[in-house]
Amino acid sequence: MTPKLNQPPRSPDALYTDCHVRARCSIERTIGELKGKWRCLRKERALHYAPEFSARIVNATCVLHNIAKHYNVPANEIYIEDEIEVEEIKEIENNVNMRARGNAVRETLIQQYFT
């Protein structure tokens, strides 16, 4: 999702953008904390796996992070494998309609929650 910049104040689009910016700050802080703990998330910013597989990796690290946090396990006590074997993932197809679909979802959210 992307914000809609330069919208009239107090318009539904501006309210959406304000919420988007606040959420993004929390998300970036959380991502930084996860990357500090889990090496598999620190790789260069290129996508090495299919989005579905990448999502599984992120979900797994979030679950493990929450378990460690619940049991007060310090970050330096977590053992992390440097190398993990994964099967080769086929090339990701480039879908030019993804942006249009994302924009349509964004407009639906604005209409449902900010008008």
What's the helix and strand layout?
Layout (H helix, E strand, L loop, with lengths): L11 H26 L13 H20 L27 H16 L2
What would your notes on this structure say?
By secondary structure, this protein is an all-alpha fold. It has a domain at 1-78. Helix content is 54%, strand content 0%. The chain contains 3 helices and no strands. The mean pLDDT is 81.
- Given the structure, what is the number of helices? 3
Structural class computed from helices and strand pairing: mainly alpha
Q: How many strands?
A: 0
> Ranges with pLDDT <50 over ≥5 residues?
none
In sequence order, what are the helices and strands, one letter per element?
Answer: HHH
Ends distance: 18 Å
Percent strand equals under 5%
| Main sheet specs | none
Global shape? extended
Helix content: 40-55%
Radius of gyration: 18 Å
Briefly say what this structure is.
Residues 11-66 form the DDE Tnp4 domain. This protein is mainly α and 115 residues long.
